[in-house]
Design goal:
Oligomer: single chain
Distance between the termini: 20 Å
CATH architecture: Orthogonal Bundle
Number of helices: 6
């Protein structure tokens, strides 16, 4: 019975998600919605923005891909002047990535627009419904961070 319920749930979520994504995209105008950066690039920019300076190996772990794949992703963001790269002074095998002022501006704009979109879409929920939704998302977040999924 549990399998059937989760299957029905997943089918319904799959039906709803494209509508939500379209609605968020319709309300936003930024590098992400215009296709100038990809979702993995946005995840990278956000991660570097939140952590300041990070090692390429951390980005590889973040995306669960090889360092060579992260290098391609980072190279594109460097060419767009959103990230900088430098070798560690003590160990040249270690490569550090940091965000540029342009990258900070892009991330900030995207996150601000996302917040406004979320407010507009979720305003139909009561405060209690929003709290329940947020509680559910936090439970999923904890499970992901604890590698239980």
């Amino acid at each position: 019975m549990k399998t059937k319920n989760i299957h029905q749930f997943s089918r319904q979520v799959v039906e709803i998600l494209p509508l939500l994504l379209r609605e968020f995209s319709r309300r936003e105008d930024n590098e992400l919605t215009r296709g100038q950066i990809t979702c993995p690039q946005m995840v990278t920019l956000d991660y570097v923005w939140r952590h300041g300076q990070v090692k390429m190996s951390a980005l590889s772990e973040l995306h669960s891909v090889r360092k060579s794949s992260v290098t391609v992703l980072v190279n594109r963001l460097i060419s767009q002047k959103m990230l900088n790269r430098r070798h560690d002074e003590g160990d040249r095998r270690i490569v550090w990535v940091s965000i540029t002022p342009k990258g900070k501006k892009v991330v900030s704009q995207i996150l601000n627009q996302k917040q406004k979109s979320i407010e507009a879409v979720f305003c139909v929920l009561t405060a209690a419904e929003r709290e329940q939704y947020l509680s559910t998302l936090r439970k999923i977040q904890r499970s992901i961070l604890e590698n239980k999924i």
